[in-house]
Amino acid sequence: MSTREDQLLHTVAALADSLVDDFDVVELLQVLIDECTMIFDIVAAGILLRGPGGELEVIVSTSERSEFVGLMQLRIGEGPCVEAVTTGQVVSVPDLSHISDRWPAFASAATESGFASMHAIPMRLRSITIGSLNLFGERIGALNEPDATAAKTLADIATISILQQRTVEESVLAQAQLQRALDSRVVIEQAKGYVAQLEGIDMEAAFHRIRAHARSTQTRLSDVADAIITGRLTV
């Protein structure tokens, strides 16, 4: 039986394998959140990233529910994910039913999500915070110290991978990568909707079908999505 340590090593290796020349940021982050659902006591995960203009966007998620919760926080302007990015600190909410005093506008939406707990880990390198890794649980409970450390380590790996360029000139390239990631997300969402409507399946099933094709053909997820919406590919 594999231990959590084995799973962490596997995840680090999977992230490293994604770091090829001109790597796909969306695929890298999707690998990260998929692996998080295997390592931690959670049922879903997602990532918010800052765009070049400073605005936050949901870039990847493992479920439509987690994507909805992320989008709701962005629309309202408050919540664990937003606070993690703003403060650069881990924000752990053991019980989402007890947040009305802290985030009143977000509280009602959170209780309707079906999640019981939520933990947001900032994606941060020194003074630069580019987003947050967000973990969603269906059971009440705090994020313990070992899990918080492990989640922060994985978030740090992804952050460093994105912001590996450190000079002023190179940071411009990193921002371009973030913009490409945001653009890719739009194309992927369009492809999900197209496949869902065409095949009569839900959005999550449509995404899994698109991603399975991308993996089996070793093609970028965004390239597969673009081929679908332009009519060059049927999955």
Polypeptide structure, described:
Helix 1 (4-18) packs parallel to helix 6 (145-162), helix 3 packs antiparallel against helix 5 and helix 8 (203-216) packs across helix 9 (221-229). The protein has nine helices and five strands. By secondary structure, it is α+β, with helices and mostly antiparallel strands. It is globular, with a radius of gyration of 17 Å. The model is unreliable at 165-169 (pLDDT under 50). A five-stranded antiparallel β-sheet has the order 2-1-5-4-3, sandwiched between helices. A hairpin with a 2-residue loop joins strand 4 (117-125) and strand 5 (128-137).
**Helix coverage percent of residues?**
55-70%
Strand content: 5-15%
- Order of helix and strand elements from N to C terminus: HHEEHHEHEEHHHH
Classify the oligomer: single chain
Mean of all residue-level pLDDT scores: 86
C-alpha termini separation: 35 Å
Silhouette: globular
Q: Uncertain segments of ≥5 residues (pLDDT<50)?
A: 165-169
Category by helix and strand content: alpha+beta
Strand order of the largest sheet: 2-1-5-4-3
The DSSP helix count reads 9
The biggest beta sheet is recorded as: 5 strands, antiparallel
Rg from alpha-carbon coordinates: 17 Å
Per DSSP E runs of 2 or more residues, the count of β-strands stands at 5
